[in-house]
Amino acid sequence: LGEARDYYNSSIAGNGAYFGVAPWLILLLRAAFVLMAAFSLWFLYRYYRKTNELMWLAVSSGVLLCTTFLVGSLGQGYYSMLLFPLLMAVLLPGSPMRNWPAWLGVYGCMTFDGFYSDRWTAFGWMVEYNKVTWGWSLLMIAVFCSLLFRYLDMRSDGVAGMVPPVRPESDAPRVPAGGIDASADTATGAEDAVGLSKQR
């Protein structure tokens, strides 16, 4: 399990072995994705674990799985079905999946489209063999950048060290029978923290 095979393997190590990528570059790429995952998991745990548990669980599990597919010794395209909770997090307000690069990555790792070409043989072959690896990579980068920019905004507002208190359900305002859209009244932990800066 510690050795990456060079066939039917979409992990960074397996893809690099197939294409003859230098070992130092493979190691650098793996380390980069581990660092991106570490920041993403920390941010989600810090600002969402108590304020939006569903967001924290769905996105954190997806980040952890996607990193494992990329950094581990074996990653195959059908592993992508395990990312379904991360994909469905797009329905949650403030989700890091609400951007087009993330969904371009989803297309890359989940599509059944073939890219072989008689006219551009080398290019089509390259895209076909790299689409899953590139898809996972783009998905990770998109989620990481979304969370990083959110954190930088919080730092610029001076609220990066604050965690908004969790309001007990008994203190929550009651919604009239007519009701309002629940999503309109839902705020993520990070968004609440950013909002604190406007009250200072």
Automatic annotation (TrEMBL):
Segments of this protein annotated with the region Disordered: 167-200
Transmembrane regions listed in the UniProt entry: 24-45, 54-71, 132-152
UniProt KW keywords: Membrane, Transmembrane, Transmembrane helix
Entry protein name: Arabinosyltransferase
